[in-house]
Amino acid sequence: MTEGVVRVGRTVRRPVRSHTAAVHGLLRHLEAAGFDGAPRVLGIDAKKREILTYLPGVVARRPLPAFATADSTLAALARLQRRYHEAVAGFASAPGAWWDGEVTRFVDGPPDTICHCDINLENVIFQPGRDGLRPYALIDFDLARPGTRLVDIIQTLRHWAPIADLADRDPALRDVDVAARIAIFCEAYGLSYSERARLVPVASRWLRRSRATIAQRARMRGGAWARMLDVGVGERLIRSAMWLERNQPEIESRLRRPIRPRARPGRSAPGRAP
Q: CA dihedral defined by 57, 59, 65, 68, rounded to 10 degrees?
């Protein structure tokens, strides 16, 4: 999606865009909040490129490796996204800050956070842990913008559950129990009962609106957006929405099952509904 991205030593250089200042403000807030799962901003170089720290590790390349599709990875990713949402709480963008994308209130009410909006398989960095490779960092905040936690979670689930028609899934994810994987993610994140109840209808609206957004950007900007449309991304989004609507009863049945208490001593269990 972003052309001209290069690695220089322990840094990544990226072209400055109209949303760069807003993203830098977000990344600096995450650093100040102690969130270690995002790049640090180092400045602008002589070629007018932003300088970010390079995060070492492994990404899930195709064909997808087993660590990328494991249920344990899905749960770990949910906890990472929860940590991101907790770290970004209280962030206030500068007046007039411009984000690359429409505010997601059109599908799920007023914004309550700054969404990453693009936690796909290529934007999650893994490193070795006690039990194998585990996700530890998020990259590529170009599409970050005000929205709701639920929409940000839905966008992650679209890639990782995956919320997709059977014909459009990666072979490694073709036979997985998607409803169960959505429930695993929501449980690990600590999503409340009320948010779980809204997940499927909000996801359906978001998927259909995303197709229209891609078509609009393809007309206005061309480039990577036009290529996405040409290779059928828009049609895949519509098929995903139709698959989701057909399977709504099974997904919602899984999501209604009791949330297990997971509180540590002295801490409340996140996401438990009253």
A: 100
Burial class (CB in 10 A: 0-12, 13-18, 19+), 166: exposed
Burial class for 109, CB neighbours closer than 10 Å (0-12, 13-18, 19+): middle
210-258 pLDDT, tens digit each: 888 888 878 887 887 788 877 878 899 999 999 999 999 999 999 998 7
* pTM, rounded to two decimals: 0.89
Q: Which residues contact 8 (CB under 8 A, 6 or more apart)?
A: none
Which pairing describes strands 113-115 and 6-8: parallel, antiparallel, or unpaired? unpaired
Q: What is 66-255's CATH number?
A: 1.10.510.10
The pLDDT tens digits of the residues spanning 18-38 come to: 999 999 999 999 999 999 999
Please, where are the H alpha helices in 91-190?
105-108, 149-160, 178-189
Break the chain into its structural domains and give their ranges: 6-53, 66-255
pLDDT (tens digit per residue) in 60-78: 999 999 999 999 999 999 9
